[in-house]
Batch of 2 targets.
Target 1
Amino acid sequence: MASLPNGTAAAAGSSGGRPVDKEVDFANYFCTYGYLYHQKEMLCDRVRMDAYHSSVFRNAPHFEGKVVLDVGTGSGILAIWSAQAGARKVYAVEATNMAEHARELARANGVADIVEVIQGTVEDVELPEKVDVIISEWMGYFLLRESMFDSVICARDRWLKPDGVMYPSHARMWLAPIRTGLGDKKMEDLDIAMDDWNLFVQDTQAYYGVNMNALTKAYRAEHEKYYLKSAIWNNLHPNQVIGQPAVIKEIDCLTATVDEIREVRAQVMLPISLEGARLSALAGWFDVHFRGSAQNPAVEEVELNTAPDEQGGTHWGQQVFLLTPPVKVSKGDSVNVSFSMVRSKENHRLMDMEFTYELHEFSGRKHPAITTKMYLE
């Protein structure tokens, strides 16, 4: 999943599905994928690339002589690998003009007779046959941002054979307590922004005779949302994780429904494992697994993990959710977290979240619960 120039996230793979809201959403979401520099960022992610490459070639029996559907093919590399692994036919669906590049790559790699690139959305395209395998790199920040999995579910329900497999087949979302200086930096940025606003208010009054102070509260609220309540992309080091991570959502890609992923709610206990730390944020990441199915298991299971890694991790990084105020914790304490994530009403590809966290000290003392709203935009 690439990042847009303004720092927001683009979708994980490329766009194979169709937004369900407004035409402007369609245009904004899909337009970025016509550019090779977005594709290059994803193609340069070695963790991502190695996981998909291994999942295909170590499980070649799933592909040999089979029909494959690649949802959101982008540059077409997953379709090309599928053909190289022995697929009889690969339908590579891509909504953007990147489809032309995918056709060119298929020709250049000698698989144009196998890989058929179809420009369109999986909600609209018609295939001449059912498929044995659906492969897609649909994952967004914190797994579900972008809602591209909706399109994969649509493709599965329309085109996958009853004994077919999905690549990936399973996914999990994780949450962990962390220490980070990002909150201090963001608070400094907020203070600078408010100092600048206050000077603006003074100057406007002095030079133009208009008192703008009535808007100060609204201006601050805007900037608090931007600096303190918006998820922050970061590649964390493992030593920033100060407690035991917990799974907050598990997804079976063969059976999941859109209703199941529309809202994610969980209650977890996060034991603290570091003495004298400051719990300043929670971090979210995901992993996906290539297991095949119960009827047709993988020869070798492969995992793609986006957890904090001392080698630098992936282009997905992790999402950091600042806790205000931070909490001093000790080894043996635990943090009880009630978590909810729902799609934004304004744009279903973005997420609104709420955390309620309560510190339970090892001594038995409980701190008052604190609720904070966050946004994954």
Note: The chain has a mean pLDDT of 91.
Target 2
Amino acid sequence: MAAGLRRALCPSWIPVSQSRLMTSSVMSAMTSELRSLRLLQEHPRVLHVQLHRPSKRNALDLHCWRELVQVFQEVSQDPECRAVVVSGAGSAFTAGIDLGELGSLLAALPAQDAARRAWALRRHILEFQESFSVMERCPKPVIAAVHGPCIGAGVDLISACDIRLCSQDASFQVKEVDMGLAADVGTLQRLPKIVGSQSLVNELAFTARVMRAPEALSCGLVSRVLPDKPALLEAALEVAAAIAARSPVAVQGTKVNLLHSRDRPVSEGLQHMATWNMAMLQTEDIPKSVQAALDKKGPEDVPFAKL
């Protein structure tokens, strides 16, 4: 990467509450209260969300599950933000769900009959699912930058992201069967749509074996493998900056329609696309983009309005 672009992407890390991104009082207050996430900004239109429990290998505690929902609900509405990078602090992306807190949650279920305990447990599962579904629904593209182990709920998390990059030392494990349960917050639903082999997904889910970075690349779980964590974060931020330079009307419309079409017939996806673009083709971003191309300029030179 050119030195100038590297400086643009990777200045010293600053809390979002001190940056131009997410300047509302509500977001600033929320940022100061986060306990398991850290919000960073290395580019004016890119938010970097870092899982930040390095002493616990970023195990997902109850604070983290709730804070992911808070952050991505705000990101979805923030016109300043155009792309998000998710990474992990320390030596691991995440060790998965915090087993101690999971045990406490199960122990705290109501001491009533099975139906009432099941109803309470279902509510908790749906809340956990929302922590990752909110990332998938966020109209801003989300890039997972995975280094070291990505275990259990970590695979659920990255499966809800739009782009996945990893470092050479990354490993992936659908760990739940080793814990006596079936994965219940997204892996079994999303991973088969990402990986090109149902047989491979079944093997990983049934055996909990570890998948290393080269295999993750070959099967399509990740789109790139970088030599180490610094190179990984640099690449993830470079991709995010490239996305942020494009028309937000075009980028967010692309994500919405990719997700809509993923689980529907081609004919229905085309109908939805036609309805979407009968409004969005009227954007001023199109003549701006065309003129920039004619003038031999890149999208980063076009002053696209906020969305």
Note: The mean pLDDT is 90.
